[in-house]
Design a protein that fits this description.
Helix content: 25-40%
Distance between the termini: 44 Å
Number of helices: 5
Shape: globular
Radius of gyration: 16 Å
Largest sheet: 5 strands, parallel
């Protein structure tokens, strides 16, 4: 069974790597550290970001022990030379500036995902905390974007 999963991952990575994306900004993300590592090792065209939910009551914990906490996810991203980490929004409800700053100090880009990101006040807090990117649904419904920013721009 592991050999089949490995072959499926390699097929997926070849498909991603060979895509013609034109001038679009692309960031490759996965909840699977093995997929992130393989993408990072097989291409250098696009940044690779590990998605981490940590330990939360919202979702069941991942079976993979390397992703059971935000700290472990950050350490894995650093050890595997990934460009960043995307955190579950519930992990940033308390002391977001402190958490984001600590991760940025380690050299990683910081992103946030989750249902909290659909709340405008939460997004404003994340922007004030200097997060690199916010991932949320229905971004096209956003009436105004920060001056000089496009929907695909991840910087503030």
């Amino acid at each position: 069974r592991p050999a089949i999963l490995h072959q499926q991952k390699q097929w997926y990575q070849r498909r991603v790597r060979d895509q013609n994306v034109g001038n679009r900004n692309i960031i490759l993300c996965s909840f699977c550290i093995d997929t992130c590592v393989m993408l990072r090792n097989k291409q250098s065209r696009w940044p690779v970001v590990l998605i981490c939910q940590g330990s939360t009551e919202t979702y069941p914990d991942y079976v993979d022990n390397r992703l059971t906490s935000l700290e472990t996810g950050v350490n894995m991203a650093i050890a595997e030379n990934l460009q960043g980490i995307s955190m579950f929004s519930g992990l940033l409800k308390e002391q977001p500036e402190k958490i984001i700053s600590a991760i940025k100090d380690s050299g990683l880009l910081t992103f946030v995902w989750g249902f909290h990101c659909c709340d405008k006040e939460f997004r404003a807090t994340m922007r004030q905390s200097k997060i690199d990117g916010i991932i949320y649904d229905r971004i096209y419904e956003e009436k105004t974007l920060p001056k000089g920013k496009s929907i695909i721009d991840t910087t503030e």
